[in-house]
Write a structure and sequence with these properties.
about 150 residues, 6 helices, globular, single chain, four-stranded mixed β-sheet, alpha+beta
Length: about 150
């Protein structure tokens, strides 16, 4: 069960609102850089609870949007017809979260992932370092994820 109420991203602290109103009907998560808020929906529009693992992935997805906003990268929500650039990064981090938390992932591995998925990223090193910094500054969230789902 997600217990974190805020996430530090760069110099901003984003409040996490678990019952936030969404401006996109079927969205599970949404970010508002203007108010430094991440909204997550615990109950789907069909009144079914959203599983914790999906909430974690959604939070990570929104954190990547925030990192993207901080580094002015402009990652596209849809990188191709079938894949979302944001979603690919979220999956990569989730799949390697223990390595990120333990600082065992290398910049070369990160670059290989970017090249393999053909993500249009020009500032790999800046983004990689920002991900490491966000994980370090929000250890509780990421360690909790590893403990529950790792």
């Amino acid at each position: 069960m997600l217990k974190v109420n805020e996430v530090k991203i760069g110099t901003d602290v984003y409040k996490i609102n678990y019952d936030g109103e969404m401006t996109i009907d079927n969205a599970v998560g949404q970010i508002s850089p203007a108010t430094s808020e991440i909204r997550l929906r615990k109950i789907a529009p069909n009144n079914q609870p959203i599983p914790d693992k999906q909430l974690y992935k959604t939070l990570l997805h929104e954190i990547i949007h925030a990192i993207d906003f901080v580094v002015f990268w402009n990652l596209e929500e849809k990188q191709s017809e079938s894949e979302s650039g944001i979603e690919l990064f979220a999956e990569f981090i989730v799949d390697n979260i223990e390595n990120f938390v333990m600082k065992e992932i290398t910049f070369d591995e990160f670059c290989q992932f970017c090249e393999m998925t053909e993500l249009n990223i020009k500032r790999h090193f800046m983004f990689f370092n920002m991900i490491l910094r966000v994980i370090e500054e929000n250890q509780e969230l990421f360690v909790e994820y590893v403990e529950i789902f790792g």
